[in-house]
Design a protein that fits this description.
The complex is a heterodimer of chains A (243) and B (320).
Chain A (H helix, E strand, L loop, with lengths): L1 E7 L2 E7 L8 E5 L6 H9 L6 E3 L1 E2 L2 E2 L5 H7 E4 L11 H6 L13 H7 L15 H15 L3 E5 L7 H18 L2 E6 L10 E6 L2 E6 L1 H4 L2 H8 L3 E5 L5 E5 L1
Parallel strand pairs in A: 3-9, 3-10, 7-8, 8-9
Antiparallel strand pairs in A: 1-2, 1-4, 5-6, 10-11, 12-13
Chain B lengths: L2 H19 L12 H35 L12 H15 L8 H21 E2 L2 E2 L1 H24 L3 H11 L11 H17 L1 H7 L3 H6 L4 H23 L5 H13 L3 H25 L8 H19 L6
Helix pairs in contact in B: 1-2, 1-12, 2-7, 2-10, 2-11, 2-12, 3-4, 3-5, 3-6, 3-10, 4-5, 4-10, 7-10, 11-12, 11-13, 12-13
The chains are: A alpha/beta (243), B mainly alpha (320).
Chain lengths: 243, 320
């Protein structure tokens, strides 16, 4: 994103935002409600058009891509997924092939195996737990073969076990498949899982960097208005606790 | 796909020729006289063909509409097309208008349905495409308006006109004629092929606009095309034989119970099941109380509702 601006109903929301995503990077986009996380993800996904600046994808403006071509490079999963549809897991995952005329090498079985849902391939979406539904959608994006995965608060409504399971899965997939992941989230305690954390507030990036460097007690208080305690071990890794 | 569905399908296809021969008097295909031959060719066959075409159009339209509106209660008539068609057709029936001969009622009802469709489409059009919530509300609103006007017309009409109009409103296939079929076939066929061509995008739209966009589709454009396909099929169906309820609402649910949610299967099988159900209803309607004909729309509901409730009890067909 280069100098990107966006307005809702003529009132500026995001102004001159600069932001980049490297190959195989696992980035957490964090900030309070209304800070602009979802807007940034939607701009990157092509769902919203910037009113100023430009978004480049592999050296070419995002808007120049056709829907199909864009879908082969970027996939986006919104926070709210319509899962009350009796598609089987296999039917859902195979939709990842829709952008292609000629089927890519990645097989449905492989995608299902990657998210641990091979055994449930014939189950309908409505029969899955919240975490399994998320994983099924992620398998669909894997089959889509996009190098960039944008996730809007995938942890919402998942208990801590599923949250950690999902983060470990994504971290694993990033290494095995070489995909870059940008994820909006609220859970402060999960920040250490990321390579980089981008902190947003009021439509602008407050700071960006490895969680061990940028996440400080002062920053959290400034952005969220709450006090937390951050523990650092000898290697510089952090763990976060509530006061 | 479950084996029982294949059995129902094969059974239905065997049933169709039998339904053509059944009526107030059964026609033995091996011992027909000249009158029976004429009845078969000029009345029963075109009537069966129209029933299959109409039922097919309603079944497929319901499948498409429930998918892109993400609403299990949507049926083709929710768009207000039928109310518009009924209003115009009733005016023609009550005034005895016969400007275009046998084509008068079908043509005028088609015009009424298309005008309603255009109005609803314009009201739902935003951001270069159709918004589902607006489409639903505009359809319901316009439907109420036309239905009220229709009731007003019926209230002030003569007994004979009232009887004919009510018969048409509940689905009247008695006017079926070979001359109507090519037009119905072309219009419904076009709508059906558009729907089948957009079946993948319909699947994606069922997962939400944002997921559909992520898979490379333009949700607004896709919905516009699907709306066009539904409008074409519903308007043609209503113009062929009036308003037949229930088929468009329930047949897609029945089909989903057997084949799952993939629109590439649901649309064609809904068309097939819809055609068979309406054909069966029409045969019963003209046979059971002969010589009085019961409108097909009533029979489809009487036949389909208990089966639908049975399926609902066995499994939540609205979502697993």
């Amino acid at each position: 994103m280069e100098e990107v601006s966006f307005s809702y109903n003529q009132s500026p929301f995001i102004e001159n935002l600069n932001f980049g995503l490297k190959e195989r990077e696992f980035v957490g986009l964090v900030g309070p409600n209304g800070s602009g996380k979802t807007t940034v993800l939607k701009l990157l996904a092509g769902l919203l058009r910037p009113h100023g600046g430009r978004i480049m994808l592999w050296g070419r403006p995002l808007q120049e891509y056709t829907g199909r071509d864009r879908a082969k490079l970027i996939s986006y999963l919104p926070q709210i997924l319509y899962t009350n549809v009796p598609f089987t897991v296999e039917e859902l995952v195979s939709m990842g092939l829709y952008p292609y005329e000629i089927m890519p090498q990645t097989s449905i079985d492989e995608a299902l195996g990657s998210v641990g849902l091979y055994e449930k391939r014939n189950a309908t979406l409505t029969e899955l737990s919240g975490g399994e539904k998320r994983r099924a959608f992620i398998a669909m994006t894997l089959l889509q073969g996009a190098g960039i995965l944008l996730l809007d608060e995938p942890m919402a409504n998942l208990d801590i076990r599923y949250q950690i399971e999902l983060l470990c899965l994504l971290r694993d997939l990033r290494l095995k498949r070489g995909i870059s992941i940008l994820m909006a989230l609220h859970e402060v305690g999960l920040f250490p899982f990321f390579d980089r954390v981008v902190v947003m507030n009021e439509g602008r990036v407050v700071t960006s960097g490895p969680p061990s460097e940028v996440v400080t007690e002062g920053l959290i208080k400034q952005v969220y208005g709450v006090e937390i305690r951050i523990h650092r071990d000898a290697r510089g890794s952090i763990s976060i606790g509530l006061i | 796909m479950k084996r029982s569905f294949y059995l129902i399908l094969v059974g239905s296809l065997i049933l169709l020729p039998l339904l053509v021969l059944t009526g107030p008097s059964f026609i033995n295909p091996f011992r027909m006289d000249k009158i029976q031959w004429t009845i078969l060719i000029r009345i029963r066959l075109p009537r069966t063909a129209v029933a299959v075409l109409m039922g097919g159009a309603l079944g497929a339209s319901g499948a498409v509409l429930q998918g892109f509106l993400r609403n299990p209660l949507a049926d083709p008539y929710i768009l207000g097309l039928s109310a518009g068609a009924a209003f115009v057709a009733t005016i023609a029936i009550l005034t005895g208008l016969l400007t275009f001969g046998v084509f008068t009622i079908p043509l005028l009802s088609f015009v009424g349905a298309v005008c309603s469709g255009v109005l609803v489409g314009l009201m739902a059009y935003r951001k270069g495409g159709i918004l589902p919530e607006r489409l639903l509300l505009a359809g319901v609103g316009l439907g109420f308006l036309f239905s009220s006007a229709l009731m007003l017309l019926l209230t002030i009409s003569s007994d004979e006109g009232l009887r004919r109009a009510i018969h048409w409103v509940f689905g009247d296939l008695s006017m079926a004629d070979w001359s109507l079929l090519p037009y119905g076939l072309i219009l419904i066929g076009t709508g059906f092929f558009i729907a089948m061509g957009r079946a993948k995008s319909l699947n994606a739209l069922m997962l939400g606009d944002e997921v559909a966009h992520s898979l490379g589709f333009n949700p607004y454009r896709e919905r516009l095309l699907l709306f066009l396909s539904v409008s074409l099929m519903t308007a043609s169906s209503v113009s062929l034989g009036g308003i037949v309820g229930f088929v468009g609402l329930v047949v897609p649910h029945m089909v989903r119970f057997f084949v799952g949610a993939d629109s590439r299967k649901v649309i064609p099988f809904s068309a097939l099941m819809g055609g068979v159900l309406l054909c069966l209803s029409d045969t019963l309607g003209r046979t059971v109380f002969a010589p009085t004909e019961v409108p097909s729309g009533l029979i489809t509901s009487i036949l389909g509702a208990p089966y639908f409730l049975y399926l609902l009890r066995r499994r939540d067909i609205l979502g697993g």
